[in-house]
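Q: I have 365 residues here and want to know how they pack in 3D. Can you give me a structure?
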Amino acid sequence: MITWPDNKHLTYHYYGNMSRDEWLVKRESLGTLGGSDVAAILGLNKYVSPAMVFYRKVGVAPPRERRETLHMAFGHMLEDMVAKAWECYDEDEEVMRRRIMSRVEGRDYDNGYGKAVPHCYLITNSQYPFLHATIDRAIMRAPASARPWLDEDISMGILECKIISPHIADMWDDGVPPYYYDQVMTYMIVTGCRYAEIALMRGNNQLIVQPVPYDETRANAIIMAAASFMAAVRDGRQIVADIMADNPGQPFYDEYNQLTPLGEEAVQALDPILPDTNDLTEEYMQFLSLRQINMEGRHVEVDEHSELHQLAMEAIELQEKVKRSKEVMKHIRKIMIKEDIGRVDTPDAVISLGKSLRVTKKKKI
């Protein structure tokens, strides 16, 4: 087992012999936030709702359906391959090719190989009892000779391995995206380790290695956000426990994962302590639409100075812009296909057509 810098505060939970479902149950039982949870509560995951993380943690919403897509399954299977390729990494592609081929033949080309080992432990830290870390690999050696950003070899670090599709690879062009950055920062906070890298396999022929610099200011922001969120969860669990005590055996949601009247009562009781996350995710919007609330209410009229009137007009204007945007994108696609164009550079924008059409504004230098 790896001894991390902050080892005296750490507890290790081995999951190497667990199924994925067993691992998920174990993770939830700890009552902590992992790297992906942290990214979600900070609003960096467009698929996972911060509010729903809260409702699930307190027990009034059903567990998130975790469908293992084919892409995810390939990712798990190929993680070992990415780690082996990372060990051969060098900025010089010819050197990296020779290292890879030598390893295939059962020998080493030179002494410039890195070393990373699997890490099958979920880690908690008594200093941050609201966080946990699950890392892909522990770096035992990252040679500076292969990394222009290093002055000396690294003998302890965190390695995350990713498989990325070519059509989303450009999101990494400006460095590590915030969603992944905060995940890895969480792991560095928990372990006390201050060095990490992400190894990206793009398609089947390009390995990209990006360092993840530790940032004290960002670390403090993550710690404060996670601590505040889990404090609200603790308060929420007490509210839920009181409601359950008064209504023994009654569920908060039914077989269709819709809130029962008791579930709606619990959600309303939790509203005052729901963390303010400005949650606009599709997942949360769907949850709100399923809430069994009596929508008859009062019928009132307001004038043009009312906040509701202003918001209604803004919503109508935005709906019209969305409709116009779809029409414009459709027209752009038609022109691109007709003239057999894959990419267009304009003075202020870039248009690219692959599996999907992307129109992005150029960054001003």
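Q: Anything worth noting?
A: The mean pLDDT is 88. The chain is about 40% helix and 15% strand.
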